Amino acid sequence: MHLSGDFINAPDETVQAPACAALPSGRAAYDLVDGDWSALAPVVGYTAARAALIGVGMAIAGEREHLIRNALAGAVGIEVFVIVWALIKKNGTT
Hints:
This protein is mainly α. It is 57% helix and 10% strand. It is built from three helices and three strands; from the N terminus they run E-E-E-H-H-H. It has a three-stranded antiparallel β-sheet. It is elongated, with a radius of gyration of 15 Å.
């Protein structure tokens, strides 16, 4: 795959996806803002997985107070950014 403008093109150039699709949750976020509510479950799943990764990193760094709350807050913040980015790309405002 290679980047071409706002799209990621498959090697055969027949499949295009928004640039945020390069992120693990990008395709689901784009589908969600495109009106596909079945993408909500994968978005929640990616957010939970991201919170787990953030929580592990925080625990390794010695942060124990409010670990779950802070990990979830960080993951939700990232996912909100991904969804807003998908919405911006979908509407072509950048």
